[in-house]
Amino acid sequence: MAQIDLRPVRITRDPARRSVQLLAGLALYGTSVAMLTRAHLGLEPWGVLAEGVMKHTGLTFGTATGVISVAVLLLWIPLRQRPGIGTVANVVVISVTVDLVRAVLPDAHDLGWQIALLAGGVALNGFATATYVGARLGPGARDGLMTGLAARTGRSVRLVRTGIEVTVVVGGFFLGGTVGVGTVLYALAIGPLTQALLPLVVWRERQPALRS
Fold first, then answer.
1. 189-206 residue pLDDT tens
2. pTM for this predicted structure
3. Burial class (CB in 10 A: 0-12, 13-18, 19+), 157
4. Distances in Å between the alpha carbon of 43 and those of 16, 51, 178, 181?
5. Using CB atoms within 10 A of its CB, is residue 116 exposed (0-12), middle (13-18) or buried (19+)?
6. Could you please report the per-residue DSSP string of 149-164?
7. CA distance 108 to 171
8. By the 8 A CB rule, do 198 and 61 touch?
9. Per-residue pLDDT tens for 150-178?
10. Residue 129: which of 142, 116, 111 has the closest Cα?
11. I want to staple 87 with a disulfide (CB 3.0 to 4.6 A). Which of 3, 52, 83, 204 is the partner?
C-alpha cells in the first residue's frame, strides 16, 4: 500500500472542513482516554504514564497528559518534525476534554459495563487518532513522534506506533501507572486501527480537472 502523505498543510487550504475535523478528532480522543480510565481494566499506554506522573506530582490526569505532550515535543527536534496549529490544539483540547469527561463519567464496577467502556474506548481512540492526524494541521506531540519515526525509518505506521506504545507502558508501569488487559489490548490494536482508518479520513489535495 502506498504511503499516505501526512505532512502538515497550511490552514488556508480548506480551513472549515479541516478545522472541524481536527477539533472533533481531539475531543473524541480525550473522551476515549476518559472512557478507558473509568473502565478500570488497565489504562492505555500514555494513560499509564500520565497516571504515574500524576501519582508523583499531584497533578490532575488531564494536566499530567499535557505536561507529557510538551516533553515529547522535544523529541521532535532530531526528527525535524514541523509543528502546526494541530500540535498546539492537541495539548490543550485533549487535556481539557479528559478532565471534563472524567468529571461526568462515573467509574464502572459492573464487568459488562467495564468491557463496553474498554472496547468502545479503544475503537474510538483509533478513529479519533486517524481523524485529527488526517486533518494535516500538524499532528499532536505523540503522533508527530509516530509519523516522524515512520518517515525516518521507512517502517509502517502500525509497527512504529506499536513500538512506541510498548515502550511508554513499560515506563509508566515503573512510575506506578495501572497496567491491565486493557493496556495490552490498546497497545496491540491502536497501530493497526490507525493505519486502517487513515486512508478513509485523511485530507488530500484536490487535483485540478484535466481539460479535454
1. 888 898 899 989 898 877
2. 0.83
3. buried
4. 34, 9, 6, 9
5. middle
6. HHHHH---HHHHHHHH
7. 26
8. no
9. 888 888 877 887 788 788 988 999 999 98
10. 142
11. 83
